[in-house]
Each structure stands twice: as C-alpha cells, then as structure tokens.
Amino acid sequence: MEGSAKDFKSVGLNDEMLDNLKSLGYLKMTPIQEKGLPLILSDQDFIGQANTGSGKTAAFALGILSKLDVTNCSPQALVIVPTRELAEQVANEIRMLARFRSNIKVLTMSGGLEEHLKIKSLKQGAHIIVGTPGRIIKLFETGMLVANDIKILVLDEADRLLEMGSIEEINRIASFTPLNRQTMLFSATFPNGIKKLSASIQEDPAQVTIDSQHQINTIEQLFFKVDGHKNDALLRVLRQYNPESCIIFCNSREICKKVAAYLGSKNMVVLQIHSDLEQPERTLFLLKFDNKSCRILVATDLASRGLDVKDVAAIINYDLPCNHELYVHRIGRTGRAGKKGLALSLYTENDCTILENISDYLKLECQTIELNDLEKLRQNAIRPCMSTIYITGGRKDNIRPGDILGALTREAGLKSEDVGKIHVLEVNSYVAIANDKIEHAIEHLNLGKIKGKKFRVGKA
Ligand code: AMP
C-alpha cells in the first residue's frame, strides 16, 4: 500500500469497524475507498469506475455496514452481481467486514443446489442479500423477497451484468425497491449502456474513476523468449521465481490439460480451471487455491471469467493472449489492492506482433530475459504446506469458522498456525490444515463434535 494513502479513521468509521479492518490487515485505504467512501457514506448515488482488485467490494460493503439497523431483520441492502461465484465471493468479503458485530446476516441468492435451504434462511430474516439478477427478480415476483426496507442497491460489475443480461432486468429489480434508496454502480468500463443504466436508476450520482494504469504500474512484467520446449521454459521460470501462488494462463483447454499433467509429473500440486469442470469441482478447486493448499492454478481465459482469487503472487502467460486487452485483464489478477505483482510471459518468434501491441498499449519497454540467464540448479518444487479437509456441516448447521477453529485447537490440540483459512459454505465446510497435522485433525474431528453435533470429516 502506498505511503501517502490515508487510513480508514479519516472517513469516520466507528472504532469496532476500525479494529476489525486492522485485524484483516486493511491498514490504508485503496484509491477507490479513499475517494469513494466519503461520498458513499454521505448517502449520495455513486458510480465507481474501478477494476476487480481495486478494493471496491470493501468500499460499498463498509457503506452498507455503516448504515445497517441490525435490530431490523428484513433486508436493507441488495447487491446484484453477474455470477453465482461472484455472489459467494462478495458475500464472504462482506461477512469478514461485518465481524465487528455479531448477528449480521448476509445471504446469497443465486440459484443452485442449496437454494431451498437459503429460501428457508431468508424467511428467518437477513440484513444483506447478494444475488444474481434472474434469481432476485423471481424472489421479488413470488413475494419471497420483500424490498420495503431496502435502503441501498448496489450493482457490482455492471458492465458484465449488461453483457450477460439486459438493462430491463436491472430496471425491473430497481422498480421493486423504494425510490428513496441509495444506488451504487461499479463497473470496470463505462460504455453507453452503463450511462443509460445509470440515468434510468440513479439520481445525480457522484462519480469516481480509478485509472487501471495505476494498478498495472505496480506489476513487474517480464518476458521470456522460448526457442525450445515451452514446458521446460515454464518449469525453469516457476522454479526460479517460486511464487507463493500463481495462475498459469493457456489459450485452450487442451493446452491447459497438458501443462497441468506435465507439472504434475514434476511433483507439483496443480489444479486446472477450464470449461470441462462441473460447478462443485470448480468451487472446490478455487477454494483450495484460495486457502493455499494448492499454489498453482492452470486456467483458460474463458473459465477464469468472474474468478476472483485474492492475492495471486504471480501470473504466468504460458501462451500470450490474442490481444492486449486480454493481457491487461490477465495480469490484473496480481498486484491487487496496492500490493506488488509479478507477470511472467513466455513468448515465441510467432508472438512478435502481439508483443508489440502490448508494449505500445502499455507504453512499456518489454523487459525480456534470456532463459539461459536463469539459475539452472533451482529445484523449488512449489509444493504447498497445507492440504484441505472437508466437514459435512456448514451454515445450515449454524457453524461459524470460530467453532471449527475451536474444535481443532482445543479438542484436537492443533496450534492456530497449523490451521489455515476456514470456508464455511451452506452444507459443507473446508479447512486448510498443515500437511503434517492432517491425519491427526481428521481423526480427532471424526471422533469429536462441533457445536454439539457429529459430522463426517475427510481429505477434500
Ligand atoms: P476487490 O476489488 O473488492 O475484489 O478487492 C481486492 C482485494 O483487496 C480483496 O482481496 C480485498 O480483501 C483486498 N482489500 C480491499 N481493501 C483493502 C485494503 N484497504 N487494504 C488491503 N487489502 C484490501
């Protein structure tokens, strides 16, 4: 985070919120937060032109949380996102930021297998709803979602909402909500469709634009010319830079599979994200990458849409993408929220035109590195120190991350540093555990109880 950035105290958040932000490691505001939060907190309609990675979720989430009446259990904020996956990610970020107070309920409504459980949960009351357009419209139409108390409507990734649906859908959602609401719209790009959408549902919005170049400048971009085998080159680059986490981009599903198989044969733990995956598998893979029980994700562009993995230390372009926009999109996944990022690209003789386009577009002298200059003997295996376990209990059993942490540290006797990220989903939970403690943790959790109930536990 830059030295000149302000801390959250300057926008007048309460002490409990500030303590929680500190515990999350959010010490300084990102540019969208610094410029946007004062406007958002003043109840104005708001347009934020910012990319994923800018900290925009926290910007609107802190606005919502500051205005919430926790004693009122009917929905007071509605966040519309383009995909189910994003709904889960946004809801999780809001839940983290809401930890300063107990009993703030955030619910995702975006279709899928567990929807009936969520409807049951909705009937019991929820403060913040995060959902996809089609699902939210259905809930309004059937009277299951009541909008009387909604004070805030957020459209997240509005350009993608319009790409995947229509302006009429969003207008229809807005028409169910009270007129005196605050409407916030976030979008990476600002084409005419978004201007039209804003004009139809917002009143005199304040606009903040965050230059994506600003983010790109924090990413170190290196290019490697490959004359021989690309797989060898990839292995050398990986071993040299030994990133804590990385996404390797390939131009097709077939290449993805080959690259993953090759790295697997070199004793690396690799997961692949491409269109052959079913949703539950995809969710589990992303979760394992997020909780650091896998450090390498191999992905295609299409499959990585809407994928919002936090804190990727490096992006590797196994293949250069076909245009510079895609290049910017790919590398924008590293160097988020002011952190330093690393983008490593392999290229061949055939890629000279696209390389020039990238260099012209970013006004960047592409820094090329000879593979032979990399140290030959590096043997980093890029293996994670954690593995993931599943527990057959989740939010429907009222389990919270603290219950699982308690069972692991108190009953199974693990140290807190042996326990990584805990994801509590609707029916299941997943926890990252240090590799050498995994059998012990599984055995104890299977014998014991969590919140007074027995659950099955195993390696995910
Ligand atoms: P977003 O643009 O909302 O997808 O956020 C990108 C990432 O930045 C997320 O992983 C957030 O948890 C993280 N983040 C948001 N605000 C801050 C902050 N002020 N300081 C550090 N990390 C942040």
Brief synopsis:
By secondary structure, the protein is of the alpha/beta class. 37% of the residues lie in helices and 18% in strands. The protein has a 7-stranded parallel sheet with strand order 3-4-2-5-6-1-7, with helices on both faces. A 7-stranded parallel sheet has the order 10-11-9-12-13-8-14, with helices on both faces. It has a 4-stranded antiparallel sheet with strand order 16-17-15-18, sandwiched between helices.
Report the C-alpha radius of gyration, rounded.
23 Å
The percentage helix is 25-40%
Q: Please report the total strand number as a whole number.
A: 18
Q: Indicate the structural class.
A: alpha/beta
Q: Which stretches are poorly predicted, pLDDT < 50 over at least 5 residues?
A: none
| CATH class category name of the largest domain | Alpha Beta
- Distance N to C terminus: 35 Å
Count the DSSP helices.
17
| Shape summary | globular
Please, what is the CATH homologous superfamily of the largest domain? P-loop containing nucleotide triphosphate hydrolases
Strand order of the largest sheet: 3-4-2-5-6-1-7
CATH architecture classification of the largest domain: 3-Layer(aba) Sandwich
The pLDDT mean sits at 89
Ions and ligands:
adenosine monophosphate
Could you say how many structural domains there are in total?
A: 3
- CATH topological fold name of the largest domain: Rossmann fold
